[in-house]
Design brief:
By secondary structure, this protein is an alpha+beta fold. The protein folds into 2 domains: 18-132, Beta-Lactamase (2-Layer Sandwich); 219-379, 2-Layer Sandwich (Heat Shock Protein 90), CATH 3.30.565.10. It contains 9 helices and 12 strands. The protein has helices at residues 20-32, 50-55, 77-85, 128-183, 189-216, 228-245, 265-289, 324-329, 346-357, and strands at 35-40, 45-48, 91-97, 103-112, 119-126, 224-227, 248-254, 260-263, 298-307, 310-317, 361-366, 371-378. A 5-stranded antiparallel beta sheet has the order 2-1-5-4-3. A 5-stranded mixed beta sheet has the order 7-9-10-12-11. A two-stranded antiparallel sheet has the order 6-8. A hairpin with a 2-residue loop joins strand 9 and strand 10. The longest helix has 56 residues, at 128-183. It is elongated and about 105 Å long. It starts with 19 loop residues before the first helix and ends with a strand. It holds the Pfam family HATPase_c. One of its GO terms (molecular function) is phosphorelay sensor kinase activity. Its EC number is 2.7.13.3. It catalyses: ATP + protein L-histidine = ADP + protein N-phospho-L-histidine. Residues 159-380 form the Histidine kinase domain.
């Protein structure tokens, strides 16, 4: 039986030159062989193929450099030296530049040749296009994160503005009372002290609100252990006054008050805030569509429970629910059902934070009364 690689000669075979096999092999390696070069132990380039020269933008059959180190960035030179000292056939990543000083991202694999004189063969794969696409994607993700933070900041500024209205009104009343007391000769040491205490109380409340706002936006560089319920309660305390003016009540129940996870606390608080705001918007939207519901109380129900090594935070509402068509697109970037009032990045970023940074999951389903978002996090 003939093998798959065996060839037959045709009647025109005599027209083939004697060196055809060598020429065909050379053409094969030109087209399909990886970029490679032969190095000595100091990194001097002894031989290289055309694909190697192509990677570094060399002209055909020319080589204007004589040592591989001259092509690498300073941080990649120690890696190359180690590979030449201890060649193990494993792949490493290097940063380099071609003759035009354009940045290159390479994978390299070095093996020692079984000849005397310490010679090595180095195979290179140019991954610059892939790396640039990855860098572009990272920049886009950073932009999405920044946009989401700005949206969250706008929401928090609205909360602060709402919470400051009452103490500012109180301060205005106190100032007017002091003026009236002075006009009527009733301003004495006791009344002044009473007014000062009242003013300090309002200022302390306003200062606490600003501190909550500031802590919310402090970035975390490394993950830490924290109590899940504490983070949820902090967000509720910030946004609850605004929800009450919208006739919306938040109900929090917890089966495990001490449940802890390792991750980024402020990022999780941003997720919880976003889900609560979405629930508020769903209730508001239902009131706009359903006249009978306009005077009904909005309910946002938050449940914290744990099973095995997983803690779940479910946030449900009595809003409009989510259609199947919308649910398929809900976590995609820039998808929004709020027209000009939405950025379309809140839920996408929330899912990214929970799944990529917290190693959990974020899902959504409809309930009998509205929609329920569920965050699942690993327990410590």
């Amino acid at each position: 039986m003939k093998s798959d690689t065996e060839t037959n000669d045709s009647r025109h075979a005599d027209n083939m030159p004697e060196n055809f096999a060598a020429a065909a092999a050379a053409e094969y390696f030109r087209l399909f062989s990886p970029a490679f070069c032969v190095l000595d132990e100091k990194g001097n380039i002894l031989r290289s193929n055309s694909n190697f020269r192509k990677v570094f933008a060399q002209k055909k059959n020319s080589l204007t450099f004589d040592n591989i180190m001259n092509l690498l960035t300073p941080k990649s030179i120690p890696t190359m030296k180690k590979l030449l000292k201890e060649p193990d056939g494993k792949t490493a990543k290097l940063k380099a530049h071609n003759v035009h000083e354009e940045k290159l991202y390479l994978k390299v694999c070095i093996s020692e040749l079984s000849v005397s004189g310490k010679l090595f063969i180095a195979f290179f794969e140019n991954i610059s296009k892939i790396k640039r696409l990855q860098n572009k994607q990272k920049k886009q993700e950073k932009l999405l994160i920044q946009q989401s933070k700005m949206a969250a900041m706008g929401e928090m500024l609205g909360v602060i503005a709402h919470q400051w209205k009452q103490p500012l009104n109180t301060l205005a009343i106190i100032a007017q009372t002091i003026g009236d007391d002075f006009d009527h000769g009733e301003l004495n040491a006791d009344s002044v002290e009473e007014h000062i205490d009242a003013i300090n109380s309002q200022i302390l409340f306003m200062s606490t609100t600003v501190d909550d706002f500031r802590r919310f936006f402090i970035p975390q560089k490394t993950p830490h252990k924290f109590r899940i319920k504490d983070s949820v309660e902090e967000i509720i305390s910030i946004i609850d006054p605004q929800l009450k003016t919208c006739n919306i009540t938040v109900c929090l129940t917890s089966e495990n008050d001490s449940a802890e996870t390792i991750g980024y606390r402020n990022e999780l608080k941003q997720v919880i805030l976003n889900l609560i705001v979405n629930a508020k918007d769903a209730i508001t939207h239902r009131r706009e569509k359903d006249e009978k519901f306009r005077t009904e109380k909005g309910i946002i129900e938050i449940k914290i429970s744990s099973m095995a090594n997983i803690c779940t935070i479910s946030i449900g509402d009595n809003g409009t629910g989510i259609s199947s068509g919308v649910m398929k697109k809900l976590f995609k970037p820039y998808f929004t059902t709020k027209n000009d009032n939405g950025t379309g990045i809140g839920l996408y970023l929330s899912k990214t934070i929970v799944e990529d940074k917290m190693h959990g999951t974020l899902s959504v389903e409809n309930s009998a009364t509205g929609a329920v978002f569920t965050v699942s996090l690993p327990l410590t």
